[in-house]
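Customer escalation, tier 2.

The customer says the design service returned an amino acid string that "doesn't look like it belongs to this structure." They asked us to rerun it and document both sides in this ticket. The original structure tokens are below, unchanged.
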């Protein structure tokens, strides 16, 4: 019965990077990227953050009014009710509509990258400008990026991939003229999150030790993040922040 219920939750099912093992399920309540075995993951998420092994990545839609005293505990309980193992799951939250997630893929002889992005900019902000500080996130994550790397990577190159993904994010925001509520050019929102998962299967015998923009991996990360985020922002309905910051 649980499997049937899950199927009803999803309106789209996609195979990523032409691989039958990389299946993305998308529904109005959440999207789920499930792997047949645990993959090495680097995450900034509040639930499953850091570097570890995970077989499930979830981006969950919640109301803009979502305010729980213990979001991690509430998420653990929610995952359990939905039939997922909290110990092997990375979970993000967003007020953006996850069914509008945009997916971009690129491949080369050294591997492939798929970017899954949801976006909204109601809490857009510009790094480097002073403003209010919250000891806990004041809102659910607004630009959430999931990167699936089909290739063999070092831990250092995964960190480097985060840098390149953020550079591509900022480029997309600049090119679309996204601003915060005060009119400043936005560099992100106050609650962005990124999750990177790697298959650790070498393609063409290549090991990715670097992920700057001119590297094989960095090129794929930059192209996919820029394209996916641009698409997600264009359909978000607004390119200006509503709250400061």
């Amino acid at each position: 019965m649980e499997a049937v219920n899950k199927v009803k939750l999803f309106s789209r099912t996609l195979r990523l990077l032409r691989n039958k093992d990389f299946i993305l399920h998308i529904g109005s309540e959440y999207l789920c990227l499930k792997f047949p075995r645990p993959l090495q993951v680097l995450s900034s998420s509040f639930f499953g953050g850091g570097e570890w092994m995970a077989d499930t990545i979830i981006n969950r839609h919640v109301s803009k009014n979502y305010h729980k005293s213990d979001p991690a505990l509430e998420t653990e309980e929610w995952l359990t009710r939905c039939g997922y193992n909290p110990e092997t799951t990375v979970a993000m939250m967003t007020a953006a509509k996850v069914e509008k997630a945009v997916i971009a893929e690129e491949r080369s002889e050294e591997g492939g990258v798929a970017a899954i992005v949801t976006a909204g900019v109601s809490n857009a902000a510009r790094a480097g400008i002073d403003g209010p500080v919250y000891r806990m996130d004041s809102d659910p994550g607004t630009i959430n990026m999931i990167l699936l790397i089909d290739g063999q990577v070092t831990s250092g190159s995964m960190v480097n991939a985060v840098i390149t993904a953020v550079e591509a994010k900022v480029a997309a925001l600049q090119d679309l003229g996204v601003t915060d509520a005060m009119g400043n050019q936005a560099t992100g929102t106050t609650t962005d999150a990124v999750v990177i998962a790697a298959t650790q299967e070498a393609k063409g015998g290549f090991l990715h030790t670097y992920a700057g923009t001119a590297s094989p991996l960095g090129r794929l990360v930059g192209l996919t993040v820029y394209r996916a985020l641009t698409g997600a922002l264009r359909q978000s309905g607004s390119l200006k922040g509503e709250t400061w910051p």
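Tier 2 assessment: The sequence is consistent with the input. The two ends are 44 Å apart (CA to CA). The chain has a mean pLDDT of 93. Sent an explanation to the customer and offered a walkthrough call.
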